[in-house]
Design brief:
single chain; mainly alpha; about 75% helix; golgi apparatus; Conserved oligomeric Golgi complex subunit 2; COG_su2_N
Amino acid sequence: MAPAAAPAGGHATGVARPVWFDAARFSEGDFEPDSYIAELRRFVPADDLRTQLDAHAAELRAQLSELINRDYEGFVGLSANLVDVDAAAARMRAPIEDLRARLDDAAGAVSGAQQKLEGALHKRAEAAEARDTLELLLDTSNVLSKVEKLLEEVARTSSSGGEQTGAADYAALLERVASEVNRLQYCAARGAELPFVQGLRSRIEAVDTQLGEMLARSLEEGLGRRDAAVLTRCLHAYAAVGKAAEAESAVRRKLVAPLVARCVPEGGKDDIRDLDGVLSAVIDAVRSELAFVLDIVAKQEAMSTAFCFPAGAVLTEVTAALAERRPAAFSSGVPSHFLENYHAGLSFLDSLESLAGRPGSPAAIAFRSHEAVGAFTSRWNLSVYFTLRFKEIAEVLDSALAPAHAGSTAAVGASSHGFSLKPTAACWDAIQRCWADDVYVPGLADRFLKLSLQLLARYHTWLRAGVRAKRADVQAGDDAGAVDAQGGHWALALSSAEGLLVVHHDAAMLASRARREFAATLRARLAHAPEATTAEVAAAVAEGADEIAAQLNDLVNVAVAMVVTRCAEALKQLRGIATTYRMTNKPMPTRPSAYVPTVLKPLVDVVDGGKRAFLSEEARSRLVEGVVGEVTRRYEVLTRELVKTVCKAESSLQRLRKVQPAEGAASGPSDTEKICTQLALDVNEYGRQLAKLGVQAAELPAYAALLAATENEAAAA
């Protein structure tokens, strides 16, 4: 029996309860009677459940009675012990109400103090804000006045700027003014919305313009003298006021423009040659004439990130000069020249980056992110270049695959990577062309990959259309003229299986090279791509190669059908055996028929003929297996039909002549026996022909069926 559960309330009653009855659940806050009963009724009979609930209710009533009886006397005497309750309540009400009043007064006082405190804090905050605003206005006004006075001092100092000491002092004053202008800019930015600051805007702009003019004169003078001290102070001043672009522009006007004018001669609008030489000359001149400026910037990291003279001065000027004097240099009209110029431009950028800083340094990163680099690279229209290359590459393959191309399936020379057919060689050349050094551009890797996969898909479509058309042509037989080629005209022109095997050889080689050589080329070109990207590219190439390889079995099957059709022509001579023995009084045969060696001759011509080099071992095995199996099956069918026909004819003749069986046996072998013997000799010879092809006739199920057909029918005869 199951152990009893304790009743509700924790009082043991000694009454056994089943395991499924848990009275403690009745006291749970989320207890639902309907759900509880529905749950138990699935495995507890209703009568048992009712019995347990009644028993539990009886226990609860018993416990309630026990509790009431235990404290009954105190419960009854409760009203007698409570005397003068109203008087006690009245005595307590007055002090409680007094306490409440005092608490309310205290709360009101605290609330008032809090409001006063908050008001004082708010006024203090307003006063602090007003004080800050006033200080900002005073600072702005004072700094502006100070800057104006300093500029007047600088203007007086400039009168003695002919000497080296005067130029250095002048630059030092400008640096000091620039630091104050930097502070002025900060104050003006903070108070930009204040009317007072807005009223000072014209004066602020005036001192900013005046400082810029003075800095430009000082910088150009320092550049002319190659004075490192003056240049350093001027560059510090430019950096302080955030006008690095103006410094780059000044260097561009003073130093870069003359050397670029020398290195980029005026050319015709259509002159696209020797851009590499022009840009190399520019780099050499920059290294020689701009080195002292670059050295000053490189010595201080803050300046190396603030100024980017290789981009802002050199590259900007070179881009403008090329656009004005040699605009054809950026033209993509002639892809080969465009690519040469594009590579020259990339090398030029690399050289300028090396002047900016070492690879990966903040200065080099700043160079690559400079707007001048973006403007220069945008001049090279890679989209147009790819469009021209796409047309150039795709047209070659389309021409080779075109139905009107007379030599689309003609053999090609030894320079075609081992391929025998022009379409396959053209497809492989087109794929290789996409990734050649004189065509490929790293920035167009995704487009050239897509084009390569499209070339493989185009070849696959051409191959599949040819296979389908030739299969339909073979199946149609004499009605081949009604076949809809649908892009497979090239296959209809193939009159022999040897041609299909050449196509098979080329397609297999193309698929193999795509998996190996083309995949290796992609790995080399995409060496810096993420591993996941490289894996996806390899999978896409493998998929394209697999689609081509999937047509190889169909090519062999169509070749099998073509060879079987030719072999079947020789099998038609089988029917002449009956005529030969019925029309002539030939003796019992001892040699096989002359047609038997010719049955498999079409297959022998294919596997051992001039095209045997195009047959792989696997393809040869499948071809031989397919042809032998189908020819042997047809041989068996014809043999059975012939023997049955001969036997029926022999039986009819015997009935007509009413010849006795004994007399027939004594007269020598019948025509039927001779025919069956001839068939047996022919089948044995056919087995020897199979052996010459490397086929073990004894292991061939179709041959066993053929041999059994001759023996069984002969016995029946």
